[in-house]
Specification:
- The complex is a heterodimer of chains A (307) and B (345).
- Chain A has 307 residues and is mainly alpha-helical.
- Chain A has a domain at 28-233.
- Chain A has helices at residues 2-39, 46-64, 72-98, 106-126, 155-177, 179-189, 191-196, 201-226, 234-249, 254-274, 278-293, and strands spanning 135-136, 145-148, 151-154, 229-230.
- Chain A has a two-stranded antiparallel ribbon. A two-stranded antiparallel sheet of chain A has the order 2-3.
- In chain A, a hairpin with a 2-residue loop joins strand 2 and strand 3.
- Chain B has 345 residues and is mainly α.
- Chain B has a single domain, classed as ABC transporter involved in vitamin B12 uptake, BtuC (Orthogonal Bundle), CATH 1.10.3470.
- Chain B is 71% helix and 0% strand.
- Chain B has 15 helices and no strands.
- Classes of the chains: A mainly alpha (307), B mainly alpha (345).
- The interface between A and B is large, with 44 and 44 residues.
């Protein structure tokens, strides 16, 4: 009896960790899924927006605030500014590297994205202000531990989970209700027809990249706050996993990305509690299994190829 | 003289090897250069193998280092652990090395079949996602397999690959690619690349040809992996990460996708380029990334796109212009008709 209870407590504890990691994946996966939905492109450089975002937070905090515990209001402001900067970088990357390739095959945009990713990572590594050594991430919040029953929670974890959910809810409302959101959905359905209907396709794509990169920066800030080591290659691994999350959920669908992100986060934490070496590989096994039985993802609709 | 002109490659291939061997013998190529040349050979085989999938069949494999890892580990397992080859005399040593290479290739091909079977039936970018996943799964499996060194890596693999074997396998890879592309299989694959639905309606068994190309490619990647293992003498799961796979994509797309010579030059030049740029230290990879971006933006066909070395020229004409038309031999027919008309007039 006692043994069973202990198992349940461990499970709940891991669930909290999983939801925290899942929030980070979900925020990152939304960017993949939105970009894929609109221009059918796998943006391999998306993980690097997370890296840029977390470095932006790091520099904003270390330049303007000497001590790192800056309180919730300013922390939120800093994260928003970092998200804005990263969003602009995302728009710039799209304009320079992806826009000229829009009419070409998906693989050439993917190669361009790999080029962007190589360039960004190595550029960040080469400039002396960042360099190859990992940095201690900024701790934005004073972390308070508390217990609900036997399950240990921390303020930072709860804030990450709740803020992510709020952001995702806002995003969903924007995409479903506002004019730009409706245009986004229209462009993802049919680019040419929606441009005939008066949607400014370039603006819609830029907005998508802004939102995607901004969300990646926010998830980078959350990641840096939860696992405080910054490296220039941190985006690559996280990006791959978030991409898998987007595919598992059904790529092109925002709800799918959120669902996939949380599934990935929880599964990864649970597996690594059992055998940590397996966690990374397992996410890919899960991906292959899902693709075998439901290739369009959990929430995706099957695509029909027309001549 | 005419024979020489028609068969220049049969003379040139051994001559180039003799020249390389002499350069090595007289010390112009030191051990450092030799190592780079051998790695360039490995990369050329990998790029050619990737070209069969990405260039000829039009599918996206972005985890090719996974097959290389399979070939490398399986062959090294053979030569290093199952048979301790390093104590043997030369002839059985070489025979076992070749056997291990072939077995590495075959196991990689089996993996290629297992992955290709379910995913190549799907449309879209699923192959890209699954191959990416496969590369990472293989790495995770190697990491927890104790008898191949797990996360420590596999050390002390006998140095069996030399300039001769790598040269030979590069030449073989080039010929395999050329003959594949020139055969009905290759033309079916190109038809699939150009328009899958149209190819299907013309009676091409689309998934069968995709799988044939993918398995051939996986076999070549396995062979390249064995060469890599016996050149470097050290294997670590992190060598075969996703970054390694993107390297080959970069070689292929910079060189010229779909062209055998392009893949050859891409693999060769881009292996050597980072070594030449070494004086720029950490900026060299920045330049490398920027170059890739510039090539894909301003020269999408790659540096060598659409052209072939004369000795790799196909009997049926350039690769890029080929498609369904050639599959049916219409081009030849049209030519014949035209010449027939001319003579009748």
């Amino acid at each position: 009896m006692k043994y069973k209870e202990a198992g349940l407590v461990t499970f709940l504890q891991l669930l909290v960790y999983g939801l925290q990691l899942g929030s980070i994946y979900a925020l990152l996966a939304i960017g993949y899924t939105m970009v894929f939905g609109i221009i059918r492109m796998i943006n391999m450089a998306h993980g690097d927006f997370l890296m840029i975002g977390s470095y932006a937070v790091y520099f904003l905090v270390s330049i303007f605030f000497a001590d790192q515990m800056i309180g919730p209001a300013i922390a939120l402001l800093v994260v928003m500014i970092a998200a804005g900067i990263t969003g602009m970088i995302g728009v710039g990357v799209e304009r320079i590297a992806y826009k000229p390739l829009r009419k070409r095959s998906t693989i050439s945009t993917m190669i361009a994205a790999i080029g962007v990713s190589l360039f960004t990572q190595n550029f960040f590594r080469a400039i002396p202000a960042i360099g190859p050594n990992p940095r201690m991430g900024p701790k934005l919040l004073v972390d308070k531990l508390f217990f609900i029953g036997p399950v240990q929670l921390s303020m930072a974890r709860i804030i990450v989970i709740i803020l992510s959910l709020i952001i995702m809810a806002i995003l969903y409302a924007v995409v479903m209700n506002t004019k730009i959101g409706i245009q986004m959905r229209a462009v993802s359905c049919d680019k040419d027809a929606s441009s005939l209907m008066g949607a400014d396709v370039n603006r819609v794509i830029s907005t998508t990249f802004f939102i995607g990169a901004g969300l990646a920066a926010i998830s980078g800030a959350f990641y840096a706050n939860s696992y405080p080591v910054l490296t220039v290659t941190m985006g690559a691994t996280l990006g791959n996993k978030a991409f898998i999350a987007a595919v598992i959920g059904g790529i092109g669908d925002i709800r799918g990305a959120v669902l996939g992100g949380y599934i990935m986060g929880v599964i990864e934490i649970m597996i690594s509690a059992v055998y940590s070496e397996l966690a990374y590989g397992f996410s890919f096994v899960a991906l292959i299994i899902i693709l075998l039985f439901k290739p369009e993802g959990l929430l995706g609709k099957p695509m029909v190829e027309k001549v | 003289m005419k024979w020489l002109k028609n068969n220049s490659e049969k003379v040139a291939i051994p001559l180039v090897f003799v020249a390389l061997w002499l350069l090595k013998y007289f010390g112009v190529i030191n051990n450092y250069l030799l190592q780079i040349l051998m790695l360039a050979g490995v990369n050329i085989i990998m790029t050619e193998s990737l070209n069969l999938v990405n260039g000829v069949t039009g599918q996206n494999s972005i985890g090719h280092a996974g097959f290389m890892a399979v070939g490398a580990y399986i062959s090294a397992l053979f030569t290093d652990i199952i048979f301790n080859v390093s104590d043997m005399p030369l002839i059985p040593q070489t025979a076992l090395f070749l056997l291990a290479t072939i077995i590495g290739g075959i196991i990689a091909a089996v993996f290629g079949y297992l992955i290709g079977m379910p995913t190549l039936r799907l449309r879209g970018d699923y192959l890209a996602i699954v191959t990416l996943g496969f590369g990472e799964v293989i790495r995770a499996i190697i990491r927890i397999t104790p008898f191949v060194g797990a996360a420590r890596g596999m050390m002390g693999i006998p140095k069996l690959a030399n300039l001769f074997w790598i040269y030979l396998f590069v030449i073989l890879a080039l010929y395999v690619c050329r003959n594949f592309i020139d055969s009905s299989y290759g033309r079916a694959c190109m038809a699939i690349r150009d328009n899958e639905i149209a190819a299907n309606t013309l009676g091409i068994n689309v998934s069968r040809y995709k799988i044939i190309a993918f398995v051939t490619s996986a076999f070549m990647a396995g062979v390249a992996g064995s060469m890599f293992a016996h050149t470097m003498r050290y294997l670590h799961p992190d060598i075969f990460s996703y970054i390694k796979s993107t390297d080959f994509l970069v070689y292929l797309y910079a060189g010229g996708v779909g062209s055998i010579s392009g893949a050859f030059l891409g693999g060769f030049v881009l292996t050597i380029l980072p070594e030449i740029l070494r004086f720029m230290q950490e900026w060299r990879l920045v330049i490398y990334g920027a170059l890739l971006l510039i090539i894909i933006l301003f020269r999408p066909q790659g540096l060598f796109g659409g052209k072939e070395f004369s000795w790799l020229k196909l009997k049926t004409g350039g690769i890029h212009q080929m498609g369904l038309k050639d599959l049916l031999g219409r081009k030849k027919m049209i030519k014949k008709e035209a010449s027939a008309e001319e003579t009748s007039q």
